[in-house]
Amino acid sequence: MTPSQVTFEIRGTLLPGEVFAICGSCDALGNWSPQNAVALLPENETGGESMLWKATIVLTRGVSVQYRYFKGCFLEPKTIGGPCQVIVHKWETHLQPRSITPLESEIIIDDGQFGIHNGVETLDSGWLTCQTEIRLRLHYSEKPPVSITKKNLKKSRFRVKLTLEGLEEDDDDRVSPTVLHKMSNSLEISLISDNEFKCRHSQPECGYGLQPDRWTEYSIQTMEPDNLELIFDFFEEDLSEHVVQGDALPGHVGTACLLSSTIAESGKSAGILTLPIMSRNSRKTIGKVRVDYIIIKPLPGYSCDMKSSFSKYWKPRTPLDVGHRGAGNSTTTAQLAKVQENTIASLRNAASHTILCVLCLFHHRIYDWMPEQPNIFQVEQLERLKQELPELKSCLCPTVSRFVPSSLCGEPGIHVDANGIDNVESA
């Protein structure tokens, strides 16, 4: 096999401790495994906002290779000579990965900006490999997350800032040879509302404001989930001028502290915590904050790769409005549904949008696994549907397993039966 030296180039920005890496479909590129990927090196230290990164890899000439770039952290292996532990922060998730067929002894591939392939930017977050993710959420779904007992603050609006601190370790623990090189703790703040989503890796000096129509979510990734001190600082939203001028920390009301070991000792992976808010001066309790939490860990014995990204892929097209037969329990719940028997209503609603309607109807109930003895009650229901929905009159007799496309579907090339759609390519 004739070798070919291929130099891959990519441009992009990184956070401290991150590197770019390339992963692909051959042994030299790790066979899609991030643990065996090749890290790129920076071309220069003063590359501006978008630095150039390079890696030269020997590939087989004339053999097509597919590959993707990602950025993350490479940690020390658990064992001598073992594979590195890799934290994937962002990776390219284009449906078709980048590809190359080297035909010369030396070749340089300039892939432009990280995440952009064929003019389309497609990036997604990585998955958990050896780290743990802690998510904390403040929201108004049931009641305000912050409750203050002081009279002068009861009607105030608040801003919240979260700070991560690692608990101190003994000297013996720090020099122990069994302690691996750990990743630095990362914090990501998400602001989620009905019509907006913002994701940030940094916070203003006084944090973000709490709003009734918005969730504030903190995502923390760490190698030491039992060794974190999470500090919530609360600031008054509306400040008068004299308070701002005469205060080193304008509007700072108080602080709440959460030890991650508290969550671990509870034995639960999800729940709600109520933390006391201590006054900044007197250290007295002035209120409480309600925090939803969830602990996410990697699945043991399961490893992901970068070969395909179908689980993250959504075809850019208008979604289909599909009629359905039922909506679960609609008669015995505390809040009765407006349309308790909703077959006709849902089919009418879908038909009014002139969108594809899947007519799975009552086939499996009509037959009850005995085609020669259909359920008479269900047959009567189907006949009633045909009377109330003229669009269904083109359907065949219920003893036939396949229904012909009706005017309700509007797609003559699609055949609908009891199991769904036979031909979905034209949908």
UniProtKB/TrEMBL annotation:
GO terms for biological process: glycerophospholipid catabolic process. Pfam families: C2_GDE1 (PF25329), CBM_20 (PF00686). GO terms for molecular function: glycerophosphocholine phosphodiesterase activity; starch binding. CDD domains: CBM20_Prei4 (cd05814). InterPro entries: C2_GPCPD1 (IPR057506), Carb-bd-like_fold (IPR013784), CBM20 (IPR002044), CBM20_GPCPD1 (IPR034839), GDPD (IPR051578), Ig-like_fold (IPR013783). Residues 1-116 form the CBM20 domain. PANTHER family: GLYCEROPHOSPHOCHOLINE PHOSPHODIESTERASE GPCPD1, GLYCEROPHOSPHORYL DIESTER PHOSPHODIESTERASE. Belongs to the glycerophosphoryl diester phosphodiesterase family. This is Glycerophosphocholine phosphodiesterase GPCPD1. The gene is GPCPD1.
